[in-house]
Amino acid sequence: MPIYEYKCEDCGREFELFRSITDNGKPTCKFCEGPVKKLISRSSFHLKGSGWYVTDYGGKKQSDSQEKKEASSGSSSGPAGEKKDSGAKKKSETSSE
After folding, report:
1. Span 1-50, pLDDT tens digits
2. 7 in helix, strand or coil?
3. Cα within 13 Å of Cα(74), Cβ side
């Protein structure tokens, strides 16, 4: 049987009820017997195994070992393939006045 969440319009309390789809009649508050409003709640299921976007394609990131390998290889090229300045000063900066 599904679990439904309700909120009482009189006392404002929220509660859950097990109700069959075929149950007739509108439920009432289990605390004060007042009228209730059905709430929409977030479902809690997770798609596991292969064949789902999350497991096959979604969110693939570089593994930690690949990131460490790239960082330790001493690669000094920038985003556009330019060599990064390795701390050497430019001629204009080194000339003394």
Report:
1. 788 899 999 999 999 999 888 888 889 999 999 999 999 987 777 777 77
2. strand
3. 1
Q: Which residue in this structure is represented by tokens 């209730």?
A: 36
The token pair at 12 is: 């404002």
- Listed in order, strand segments (DSSP E) in 2-96 are 3-8, 14-18, 36-39
Q: How do the domains of the chain map onto residue ranges?
A: 3-39
Please provide the size of the chain in residues.
97
Are the CB atoms for 35 and 10 separated by under 8 Å? yes
Nearest of 66, 89, 69, 86 to residue 78 by alpha carbon: 86
